[in-house]
Amino acid sequence: MVEAAHLAVQVGLPMHRVYAMSLACACLLGCVDLGTRERPVPQAWTPDAAVEAAAVATRSVTIRSIRFYPEAIRIGAGETVTWTNMDPVVHTVTEGWPAQAQHLFDSQRFSTGEVFEHTFTNPGLYYYYCRPHAAQMFGARVYVE
Q: Where in the chain is the domain with CATH 2.60.40.420?
């Protein structure tokens, strides 16, 4: 790769193009991980006492500092959860995992001070993440009893 970079410079390619080509090659060869690898989708889930105890009994989630607070909540079937964006950037609340093609709910992008609500009608465990910040904001969950 180094020899190719020297050759590119010798033939007159600007350095920023050489760096971009080098990074692209490294990514294609798997030498650099830019956080785009698929995350494993959880297997079938059975609630246990530890998970139930860790989930906070609330219907409000705040988004701040590129995080969901609290990360795990517990509600009853038929209840509505409200997410409020307190960050200076847009976020989404998207059900599932980044590698999934279909989602049960997706807020679309919403800005500072805006809210998104979703009513959970069926019991179960629902994971969600933020599409623009999927590398940092994934694995949050709603436990519906």
A: 49-144
